[in-house]
Amino acid sequence: MSSLIKSAKLARFCLRTNPVLATAIRHHWNEDYKPGLYPRTEEERLKAAERYGLHPSEYKPYQNDGMGYGDYPELPNISGDSKDPFYPWDNPELKRNFNEPLHAEFDLMREDRYNVSAQLRYPMWMQWLQFLGVMFGTFAVYAILENFKMFHPLTPRQYPGDGKVHYTFEPEE
Description:
Blueprint: H1 2-17, H2 19-27, H3 42-51, H4 124-145
């Protein structure tokens, strides 16, 4: 127990003397990750493109619709599954290179998440038709057969010498 208290005191001391560490632990991000204001002039646009490491012709910010993306670049929707697995990525686990900007929805488009570029085997209307057909079919079978109760046919249990007491819990005299 004392080692637990000592480690808690040490952690408190480290966090008190290093506020950057406390911010990184508590918030998992720092002020540099926050996008800037939406670029209104060409000069601001060029500065934002340089900040994200994009060529000015490639840089296009999200629309200023109040969602809070600011000057963050609107990148194409390419999932991790659609990227080349044999390319020598700097970070092969996430299939991205050093200093490459992340998509705003990166947490949804990794390899272990939703694939936005997948070609569906069946069109969406057919998938909905199959789903609703199964659900309504199951409900129809339930509704029709609800009045016909099913049970296992059983006969009464048979004991040797019906009505005769074979054992008792009363002490013998």
